TrEMBL record, chains A, B:
Keyword Oxidoreductase applies: yes
Family: Belongs to the NtaA/SnaA/DszA monooxygenase family.
SUPFAM superfamilies: Bacterial luciferase-like
Binding site for FMN: D57, T101, H151, Y155, S226
InterPro entries membership: Diverse_substr_monoxygenases (IPR051260), Luciferase-like_dom (IPR011251), Luciferase-like_sf (IPR036661), NTA_MOA (IPR016215)
Domain Luciferase-like: 13-391
PANTHER family, A to Z: ALKANESULFONATE MONOOXYGENASE-RELATED, C2H2 FINGER DOMAIN TRANSCRIPTION FACTOR (EUROFUNG)-RELATED
Organism whose genome encodes this protein: Phyllobacterium myrsinacearum
Keywords: Flavoprotein, FMN, Monooxygenase, Oxidoreductase
GO molecular function, one term: oxidoreductase activity, acting on paired donors, with incorporation or reduction of molecular oxygen
Domain of life: Bacteria
NCBIfam families cross-referenced by the UniProt entry: FMN_nitrolo
Protein name, per record: FMN-dependent oxidoreductase (Nitrilotriacetate monooxygenase family)
Amino acid sequence: MAKRKDQIKLGAFLLFTGHHVAAWRHPQASVGVNFENYIELAKLAENAKFDAIFFADGVAARLKDIEAASRKAHSGVYPFEPITLLSALSSVTKNIGLIATASTSYSDPFNLARQFASLDRLSGGRAGWNLVTSSDPEAAFNFGHDGHILHADRYERAQEFADVVLGLWDSWEDDAFPRDKASGQYFNQEKLHVLDHRGKHFKVRGPLNLPRSPQGHPVVVQAGASEAGKELAARTAEAIFAAQITLEEATAYYADVKGRLGKYGRTPDDLKILPGIFPVVGRTQAEAQEKFEQLQDLIQPEVGLNLVSALAGGVDLSAYPLDGPVPADLPETNAGKSRQSLVLDLARRENLTIRQLYLRVAGARGHWQVVGTPEHIADVLEERFENYGADGFNIMAPVMPGGLADFIELIVPELRRRGLFRTEYEGKTLRENLGLKRPANRFTQAASAAAE
Amino acid sequence: MAKRKDQIKLGAFLLFTGHHVAAWRHPQASVGVNFENYIELAKLAENAKFDAIFFADGVAARLKDIEAASRKAHSGVYPFEPITLLSALSSVTKNIGLIATASTSYSDPFNLARQFASLDRLSGGRAGWNLVTSSDPEAAFNFGHDGHILHADRYERAQEFADVVLGLWDSWEDDAFPRDKASGQYFNQEKLHVLDHRGKHFKVRGPLNLPRSPQGHPVVVQAGASEAGKELAARTAEAIFAAQITLEEATAYYADVKGRLGKYGRTPDDLKILPGIFPVVGRTQAEAQEKFEQLQDLIQPEVGLNLVSALAGGVDLSAYPLDGPVPADLPETNAGKSRQSLVLDLARRENLTIRQLYLRVAGARGHWQVVGTPEHIADVLEERFENYGADGFNIMAPVMPGGLADFIELIVPELRRRGLFRTEYEGKTLRENLGLKRPANRFTQAASAAAE
């Protein structure tokens, strides 16, 4: 197979204290959750020429199992809200992309379109919106609902939401504001376009009360895994934060999603696929393994059991001895046998105790986990990239800031030696660095087409 | 009358290009509307020890009269959205308060509470929320409505909105997050309080998924002028951006609002009243007048007529000669005779031409306007402060950045000579500088009271 001509794109997924479930207890983790910690992380990633920093989000604390929640950092209680956080980081960074997650389920399209366009303007063209739908049942309660919005409806709403947001972002053409002191013309009314959207879920007149942003519009990121999610991504997204674990899954997903682009008039280059990876790196395999075990040892049984329970659809193991076998005769949960089995079959197949089971699945919280030397990790990244399983990766460092610093110190140079990662930013905007086109304003396009 | 023991508080109301309607055409105005302009303005105000910078907002472009709108900077199209803008400014400033306007009519209380709390955390306790209701009929169209929400209902909704936001801000007690690595306790569940609000307009369970912020909660600012607005302010606000023009109006308003605090268990010190002032300062009266005329000469007739029309309830003067008299027999508008008369009576009383009329009312857009020497302006500020017409002022510089720089260079030293304005910040948070108490968490209070 011929080598790819493009290079790996890298995002730093900055989950505070780190992605390992027990990271916050690690001696090197910054648990202070101060803004200064984020400045440090953002600058670390920017100095290493990462494409972007990336923030997850949710709009509810997940407190159903409050005992387990009170013992972990990741219970949906964030130190900062991502749009404000990235805005604050925009003025102390210069080149790195700034991607914030925001939900279409519990946001308003006008306000969201405006805040992301504003961030794009503040940062000189570095904003990205990670479009999610909320699958957290507790979120609905914070927004006037008694129950949860169903999945199919959620995606339908999400697509319409994205259409509205993209439409609002084209309210003004790029040159709509001459601001000519002499003639007194502030804006050119012919370059203003009122959206007047009237759909099933939204009615939004527009225009957005903000000029068009440097990137045309912020980069739209998505994480579609379900059928509806993949279709939404193929139609709308410019980058995907994917979550496949094996190479086979990754290449199949990649081909599947890229294959859907044509029917929306898009090319494979219009969408970058960036799976997450949870890397534990050491100068030797033994050092890497030791680092990992150190984190694993910090997992509290309540937290481990809670994560097994979440992954296995609600099964409750708390009544059984931790160092005894996983019982054979567990009652079936609402989630159904298949989901429950995925985790429990693993335990039976490998004859794991309950503790061994949670250590196996809880640490990286189900993500693609690689423990090894810089060469080994560079190998698996290269393999996945060259085989079209990924256009780049979202780095989920186990502990912050140490895990990200390790990746940069040990793995990035190895990728550069292989010609797989940049030494300088290609451009000034997130789009330019990701290799994405700047979208023309749909109305400017229409006018040009009509004139031809 | 004994001199007041406290000092004047100063806010810088940063309307881009300046508050004069034609400011953007002024040779010294920054019309580039770049973020760098705002950094310059924020640092200017911070170096002068202002309490806060303040941003207006609206959620619609006001384009009904598009010809006039296209000739002015202030048609509701902002270069940035205020929450993102202030977040970006938070990391390049240290002491100055950051007050953003956000509407209760078209925001969601959970998202708004979270973003302002996040800004308070990012800035180390410098956030303020200027709570407004939207009176702009065009805003409704951007949020799924066909018409406008009525005034009484708007304020009722606003009060409930504020109650929800304040409740969410108390979700976690100050010491709810021990984050104790050794014991594994991340948060203390006894310090978590679920709001469970169920009201007429909102149903919000909570808790907010963000720790309590440095100021306890952001400073709540309001601009209540109507009966409903003043009551809302007396119950909820900690600072008021007031808009009275004469000393008599100002002292009457001050006494009125401060007099309402008692019934809500509050003292006069719990609420600071900060009227806006549009100052045009020159080393001599002639220089000040010349500066003002230079701005006035830049007003375009379409814009002037449009502002007269807005102030006079929709009256249309565009068919009459600009340098002829205001006609006596104008048709009555929907706004009714009284509002129309306020402006038209002025014209008749003083025998003004149409151009003279718009020059009289349009420049400062109806705000308290003072044109004079530093001594004169310091005199009127001192008079208003010492007579309890104000606790401080919101400076609406005619042109940015020049008008703000003039105020700082010429008037601030004069206020300091009189002992009326600080030379150093008293504290680190906006509250400390404004002289406002840090609110105890309502649940901590309740627990202490129960224990007594």
